[in-house]
Amino acid sequence: MTVAAVLVAAVLVAYAACLGTLGPMMLGRARWTARAPLLAIVVYLAAGWSVIAALGLAGLTLAVHATALGGGLSHLVGACVHRLQATCPSRSRGARTT
Questions:
Q1: Whose CA is closest to 61, among 18, 14, 15, 6?
Q2: How far is residue 7 from each of residues 10, 42, 65, measured CA to CA in Å?
Q3: pTM of this prediction exceeds 0.70
Q4: How far apart are CA 36 and CA 27, in angstroms?
């Protein structure tokens, strides 16, 4: 695994941890949420989904770099392409398409 991949994953996890713990506390104390409840709901949902997305992207970053360095990702993609070629009928040159 490269240092950049681990650093990106660490930053995403730190972002998710900070927003996941401090976000609800800050929104709970804010007075503007009573004046604009719809905006508060949108901000709360956006923060929650961004935490989920950050954790997913951190895991994906580590998984892709772990398999790509071992040649696993290219082997997996090659196997998927081979499987698709074997199962789907292809339109090669000279073949009739009626």
A1: 6
A2: 5, 30, 12
A3: no
A4: 12
Residue 2 DSSP one-character state: -
* Number of compact structural domains in the chain: 1
Q: Please state, in angstroms and rounded to a whole number, the distance separating the CA atoms of residues 13 and 5.
A: 12
> What domain range includes position 78?
3-87
**Residue in 43, 61, 56 with CA at minimum distance from that of residue 16:** 56
Q: Is residue 22 part of a domain?
A: yes
Could you count the other beta carbons within 10 Å of the beta carbon of residue 34? 8
Q: Residue 93 domain-assigned?
A: no
pLDDT in tens, 26-49: 999 999 999 999 999 999 999 999
Residue 61: partners with Cβ closer than 8 Å, 6 or more residues away? 5, 8, 9, 12
53-72 pLDDT tens trace = 999 999 888 887 766 555 55
